[in-house]
Amino acid sequence: MISKSQIKFIKSLQLKKYRKEEQCFVVDGEKGVEEVLKSDFKIEMLLVTESFRERKAKLWKDVNVDWLIVTEKQLAAVSSFQTNESVLAVVRQKPNQLPVLGQNEFILALDDIRDPGNLGTIIRTADWFGIRKIIASEQTADGYNPKVINSTMGSFTRVQLAYANLMDLIPQWEAPVYGTFMDGEDVHEKRFDKRGVIVIGNEANGISPAIQSLVTHRITIPGAVGAESLNAAVATGIVLDNWSRLKK
């Protein structure tokens, strides 16, 4: 049985202020929760309906978390989405640990990505292409926003996302920096080094002037005449597809 205070606590995690205070976030749905169970994230609370518990009892028999049985109505009251597949987890956040750029490794740098859906899709795309570390500017959307978590389809458990001052951090790596611009070398022909940083800019304004000063390789995605720009997540997918095929 779930208490009113527990319901209030879970609902509060829809807001960044309380996610930061409590250092917790919510994962909705079977796919996301299963990915968390396979990861090193810690589940603080697991809410399931009776029908879900019966269906998953054998498969989840080794889950070392107490199951809190709730009704569909109670689950809907704390969920951020209309459908949540009868399961929800409250998960402990990880510390904001700055990544190290290893040899033969690329890191994705996000310069002021504001839309949670874009951020989630970028994380999912990075996971697909084998990028395991993302560094984001302090103005980028919160990685624990429910829309971000939902959009990643579980990829947030495999891709490290950290926040930092990009102007301070990127130069420390002493690596080639690739940035997307309207003018630059065709990304379909660009040869990428074995080690480096790929910068994706803001949805409306692109890469900020300050971060532009760090870019050593300007790349562009050719488009049809008249088209103004690409969605940031779509652009990320195109760049990473070419990176995966054209790296040295």
Task: Tell me about this structure.
- The structure is a single chain.
- The protein is of the alpha/beta class and 248 residues long.
- The protein is 33% helix and 22% strand.
- It is built from ten helices and ten strands.
- The chain has helices at residues 4-12, 16-22, 30-37, 50-56, 72-78, 116-128, 146-152, 166-169, 209-212, 232-246, and strands at residues 24-28, 43-49, 67-70, 87-92, 106-110, 133-136, 160-163, 177-186, 196-200, 217-220.
- Strands 7-6-5-9-8-10 form a six-stranded parallel sheet, with helices on one face.
- Helix 4 links the parallel strand 2 and strand 3.
- Helix 6 (116-128) packs parallel to helix 7 (146-152) and helix 6 packs parallel to helix 10.
- The longest helix has 15 residues, at 232-246.
- It is elongated, with a radius of gyration of 20 Å.
- The termini are far apart.
- The relative contact order is 0.14.
- The model has no long low-confidence stretch (mean pLDDT 92).
Short description:
It contains ten helices and ten strands. It has helices spanning 4-12, 16-22, 30-37, 50-56, 72-78, 116-128, 146-152, 166-169, 209-212, 232-246; strands at residues 24-28, 43-49, 67-70, 87-92, 106-110, 133-136, 160-163, 177-186, 196-200, 217-220.
Q: Using the CA coordinates, give the radius of gyration.
A: 20 Å
Sheet bearing the most strands, described? 6 strands, parallel
Share in helix: 25-40%
Low-confidence stretches: none
SSE ordering: HHEHEHEHEEHEHEHEEHEH
Strand order, sheet with most strands: 7-6-5-9-8-10
> pLDDT average, as an integer?
92
Terminus-to-terminus distance: 57 Å
- Secondary structural class: alpha/beta
The number of helical runs is: 10
Strand content: 15-25%
How many DSSP E strands?
10
Molecular shape: elongated
